[in-house]
Amino acid sequence: MDLGLAARYTSHWEGLRSTVYNDTRGIPTIGVGFNLTTPGAPDEIAALGLDYQSVLDGSVALTNDQIDQLLQSTLQTAVNGALALVPDFDSIPSNQQIVLADLVFNMGQATLGTFVHTLAYIQQQNWAMAAYNLQQSLWFTQVGSGPTQRGGADCAVLAGSAQPTDFLA
What we know:
The chain is mainly α. The chain has one domain (3-167): Lysozyme, CATH 1.10.530.40. 58% of the residues lie in helices and 7% in strands. The chain is built from 10 helices and 3 strands; from the N terminus they run αβββααααααααα. Strands 1-2-3 form a 3-stranded antiparallel beta sheet. Strand 2 and strand 3 (34-35) form a beta hairpin. Helix 5 runs antiparallel to helix 10 and helix 7 (116-123) packs antiparallel against helix 8. The longest helix has 22 residues, at 64-85. The radius of gyration is 16 Å and the shape is elongated. 36% of the residues are buried.
């Protein structure tokens, strides 16, 4: 998988903010969708040479390099989650790997793990049915079902009717 393209793709949907903000569920977040309440978040912020509480209260902004470091770490966690859910992850096409990483990044491994039918179709590499099944979920409408929104784009790339680069400026 092209991790650089995966980072660009996920960043496109997540956006980028150098200071703390509350995501759509009210969770303190920074950078490219980095959840500041996850276990290990204080350690990851400290590894950047920053005080966690100062980042959390908004008195410290991240640099682009620090944002990128958090993104790479979080994206690797998402890839690991995708590997746990789809044991043959390394043998599926790169575009579908990028979508799986984006799905885990966005909803988390545990939530994607509840999409048992979608995951079964992914295991079978039945991309059209995997995408169709994903379109039936609440997630699909929550993140945007339009062709230029995250849900629509993830399903199009998963089905093989679009490339991740089709959605990047």
